[in-house]
Structures are given as C-alpha cells and as structure tokens.
Records
---
Amino acid sequence: MPLYSSIFSATIPHILRHGKKTDYFTFSHLEAATSSCFLSFNHKNLSSSHIASVSNFEQIYSSHLMEEERQMVDVVSQPEEYSKELNVAVRAVQMACSLSQKVQDTLISKPSNNSKDCSSSVTVAGWSVKAIISWILSTCLRDDNISILAEEDVHTLSNTNSSELLETVAKTVNECLAKAPQFGVEAPESPLGTSEVLEIISHCNSLGGPSGRFWALNCDQYAVSLSLIKDGEVVVGVLGCPNYPMRKDWLSYQQSYHRIMSKLIPSTNRTLNEGCVICAKKGSGKAWIQPLIHVNEKFVWPNHAKQASVSSIDNLALATFCETVEKANSSHSFTDGLAHSVGLSNKPLRVYNMVKYAAIACGDAEVFMKFSRSGYKEKICDHAAGVIIIQEAGGTVTDVRGCSLDFSKGSHLEGIDRGIVACAGSTLHENIIDAVDASWSSSTL
Ligand SMILES: Nc1ncnc2c1ncn2[C@@H]1O[C@H](COP(=O)(O)O)[C@@H](OP(=O)(O)O)[C@H]1O
Ligand SMILES: [Mg+2]
C-alpha cells in the first residue's frame, strides 16, 4: 500500500501506541439526526411507547424490498418468540456501535499523545455503552428488571471518587440518547440525571446461571455483542463490528486501519466498508447482516439486511483460520503447528475478540481455534452472541472434544475441554478436532 504509506505512517504509530482493542478515545457528540422510525410491520409486538412507528412502512418499503430483505421482514415480523427482543437488541447495538465509531473517528482526526486522556475516554465509552444498552432494553421491552451480565463491577462507578467520571458518563449517555430517534427509539423525555444513570447501569449485575433470563454484554472498540440467555441457552445474539470492512481482503489488516482506509478509498457502495451488525435467533436457521447506519441516516429495520451464511469451503487447504491477536490469549505456536499438519496453508487471520465469529458467520473465514492457557476460564460474554450467530448461519461451534459450550454455569464457560473450535461446516470441524486430538499429547498446553 505505498500510496497510503505517508498517511499511515502519521496515524499508525499513534494507533499502535493507543489503539489497543480497548481504546475508545475521546467521545465527541453525534451529529444532528433526524427523527421517526419505520416499524409498522412489527410494532404490535413492540412496546410502542418507546419505539416510534410509521404506518406506511409496507407501502414505502415492501414494494421495494429485495428478496433477501423480504425474507428478513418475514423472519422478524412474525410474532415469533424473541422477535421483539432481537429487534430491540439490534437497535441497541447499532447505537453502541455508532458511539464507538464516533470515538474512533475522533482518534483518527485528533490523535492524543496523552495516554491518561485515552484511558479515561475508554472508561467513559465503556460505561456509556452499558448505560445506553441497559436503558434501551428496559425501556423498549418495558422491563424494569432487565438483568445484564457484563464484565466490569458496576459498583466502581458509584464509588465516591468517581463523581467526575459519572458526570462525564451521564453527559455522554444523554448526548447519545438524544439521537435515539435516528434508531427508531424515542429519546427520554428529559436528560437522565447521574442517579438515573447509576440506576440503569446497576442492572449490569447479573451473575448468569441456569434459570431465568439475562442479557450478556461485551463491548470494546472492535465488537459490541449482546445476547439473550434463557434457562442457560442462548436464544438471541447480536454482534456489531464497527470496523468490519465487509471486504474480505481488508480483514487481514490491523482493524484500526479500516476506518482510515475506508476514508481514503472511496467505495461505490459505502455500506460495503463501514461496519456491520449481525444477528440471529435460536432455531431460525438464519443469521442476518446489515450495515451500520451513519451520520444523518435513519435506521430502517431491516435496512439492507442480507442473510449471512458460512462459507461453503470444506477443504482445509482452501480454508482460512482465525486466531487471537494476542499470543497470550491462545497459543499461536500450537495453532501454527496444527494448521501445518492439516494443510491449512492460508495465513491466519488475527482479528480481535468476536470479530473472529463475525468473519466465520459472514463466510470470510472458515475456522476459529482458541487454546487458552490452562487455568484461564472463558467468559460467556465473550462468546454467546458469536456462537448462536455462527450456528444459525450454518456453522458448528464446540469445545475441542466436540461438546457444546455450556452457558448455564454462571459468568464463565465451565468445563471447556482444551479449547474452542468454530468452523463453517461439520467436515472442517471434524478434521480440526481429530487433528487436535492427535497432536494434543505432544503439546505443552
Ligand atoms: N489470559 C487469557 N487467556 C485466554 N484468553 C484471554 C486471556 N485474557 C483475556 N482473554 C480473552 O481473549 C479476548 C481477547 O482475545 P483477542 O486477542 O482475540 O482479542 C479477551 O476479550 P476481552 O478483552 O473482551 O476480555 C478475553 O475474552
Ligand atoms: Mg470481553
């Protein structure tokens, strides 16, 4: 990429210094947005008080829908179980991703050398996403007892030393919620006070478990994932990837570059390179992918949604495998050796967190393997949405013995044997599992 090297050399060192997966940088306000939403096909199923509707959705959109979009309407408009939850969760994740994109745009346009500024922006963005998602879920689903399993301890923010942070989070949350109509959600009547923000964040205190329902949330710069878990089973999964390039050849670049590249290389179809949200409902046999909406656009459900399907490649020689970016999180030497032994000759795709699941669900990669050091317990928030999306898109996800991942044991996946393997199809999956079995005893894992 020599053409871009001078711009990259100016921006990349900054990203490398500060652009780790958890860095959000300064949040700047979202641009003015328009109001109203398009939901009449489904509004009977929704809590109409907070989700606006236009009655002429059918006339405006149905006649123009492409076949895939029609199918999407069929899937989400039927009064099926969890349609409402899926619909609301997609909006919540869209909003969270737009906040994340905004922060990243600020990073690119106004790089800061102050790591303290950066980490405080990360913290603000993280809490703000929790608040926004909690508020949307409880308001749109009319559920005052929303329960969310997230990674941080909710009490940190109520600490008396955190009052400045709380004020900043509340400001960010209010700026973001003021744009809720852009996503088809009514904004709060008046800005939320700090105690209300604390109250909505306090719902992020679920411990998970085998019965009842709770949401699992994970957010960072590269992925925002939200899943609904009912009686230990994942029933809805939504995965937003604000940097997903939607062009396979760009995936192999460090993800922070994508947004720079998408600005440098004009696309005839902008939606092809600026992030996506993928979602699925248990048992539907389908997953859906749609672009993120951008400044001054309205979220039109199911806007440009297309069915997401895993790749049809079932030959390891042609397959691409994903693995963790950080060597500390999964043994690269073991996966390299394994890849060599099974004839996986393509370069591994190292993308952060759940972007790996997204790559498989969209057919951009075929295999994901993660072999954590012994003693590390995987968190369910880091997998739930990705697992259901891959399964509904036609793929297979298990531990290395071929057992399903168990989301009923609290905040962590207990009893995972050796590691996690996700594949586009059962043939690939069997081959990988057999190969791991054959090489495990000689490994140092
Ligand atoms: N010591 C460890 N061993 C294995 N996985 C780890 C780990 N520490 C963190 N992780 C997991 O690996 C994820 C990051 O992987 P990757 O390198 O592919 O981005 C982390 O996501 P979070 O940062 O959301 O907790 C976490 O789920
Ligand atoms: Mg995580």
---
Amino acid sequence: MSDCIIECHNLETAYAASLNRPILNGINCQIKRGEFVVLLGLNGAGKSTLLRSLVGLIKPVRGEIQINGMTVTPRTLPKIRRDIGMLFQGGGLIRQLSALENVLCGRLGVRTTWQTLLGFPKRDRLLALDLLEQLGLRELAEQKTSKLSGGQQQRVAIARALIQSPQILLADEPITGLDVVASQQVMQTLSHLHTQQGMTIVAVLHDLGIAAKYAQRAIVLDAGRIVYDGICDNLQAQFANASM
Ligand SMILES: Nc1ncnc2c1ncn2[C@@H]1O[C@H](COP(=O)(O)OP(=O)(O)OP(=O)(O)O)[C@@H](O)[C@H]1O
C-alpha cells in the first residue's frame, strides 16, 4: 500500500472572472497516510475549493487528484467517497432530528431506501450510539440537535462523518464560531482520531496557534497557489507576503 493517500498533480479549477484567475492554479501536494495537515490561507485563497475538489464536488479543468492511488473520476467517486468523511463549518446537521438520527444519516449513502424505510438496521443504531459514547454525547443521543451547544453539534457531525469508517477526514473550518472550550474539545477529538486511529486529517483552520498545536504540517494557500508546505513553525511569517 502506498504511503500517499491524497495526491494532487497540477490541479487547476475553473477560471473565475471575478478573480481574473483560476480559483486553484497548479496545486501539487502529497499527503501521507496518517498525517494531520492543516490548510491555511486568507479568505478566498481557495482552501474550501481544494477540500471540495478532493471529494469530486468540484471538477478540475486540468491536472488530477488521486485518493488511495485511485484517480478521482465519476466512475471512481462512489468508492472514493466511502473512504472520506467530511465535516463542515457549523456541522450541517438537520436541526429537527435527534443527535442519533443525524449520525445515522451518515449511513444513507450505503443503505438503500428500502433498508431505511422502516428505520435503520439495529447494527447501525448500535454503531451510532457507540460513536456518540466515544464523543461524550451518549446521554444526548435522543436530544434534538437544535437544543445542543455549538461544540456538541460539531461532535455529532464528527460522529456522522465517522459512521462510515473513513480513512480520511476532511474538516472545513470545524471550529469557526465555537468558543474556546468547544474549539478545544473538537480539536482534541480530531487529534485523538489522528493519534489513536491513525486517521488522515486535513482541516481548514484560521487560527495559527491552534494549527501549530494540533497539526504536524501546514499547507498555506494564497490566491489559488501553495505558498508554503512544511512544519507548523513560525506560521505567522508565512502570511507576511500573502496577497491582501
Ligand atoms: N462557484 C464559484 N464561482 C466563482 N467564484 C467562486 C466559486 N466558488 C468560489 N469562488 C471564489 O473562489 C475563491 C476561493 O473560494 P474558497 O471558498 O475556496 O476560499 P477559502 O480559502 O475557503 O476562503 P474562506 O477562508 O473565506 O472560506 C473566492 O474568491 C470565491 O469567491
């Protein structure tokens, strides 16, 4: 099995007239299995676009992406997506459903309509409850997610992403809008997945201190290009020349 789990070769996405350039412009990077990488950059640098490209939500106009050695194409996407969990800013939960039901939604991609029509199979429910337990939310399993705090909601979203046992977790601004305590809980959860389960994590963050505390490696984007790729030392300096 190759060491690299994510590879981008000369990745270029569509030209944006408003920017006068492609949104991503010649991205080359390799992420190794089990790495915790943070994606940094000013607003509009292309971080979300890069994450979304990895799961085929954005089609490159040039270059290619390989996940687990497989080139991302419409044919390989269903298999590739089973290996990737995705976490969005704010969690993206269904507010009127319970924490448990939201976690079970992570199984919709692998269950047929018939299999879920009368409720999810018992083993899915047990798995969802187990994940909620691991994330310290077992008592809140039946609670509507609209009643949970921001940090609790984000941990439900992590459980939802984990129910498909992904090898890779992509997190787009997972702590934006959370207070210090909730941010720490979410980052510690990601860190735990990385150290205890060897999960590959790529997270978009804005806080350089938190990035340096949890990630092993930073990739800094500026105007659609990678301008730094390395250890999380002195990240402040990497922003000194970023286009404002
Ligand atoms: N579909 C689109 N059409 C045109 N421009 C787009 C499209 N999607 C994104 N952009 C532009 O591409 C640039 C990069 O967007 P992206 O969301 O990837 O940036 P980001 O680094 O994640 O920014 P932020 O930190 O603000 O979330 C932005 O200037 C955005 O306006």
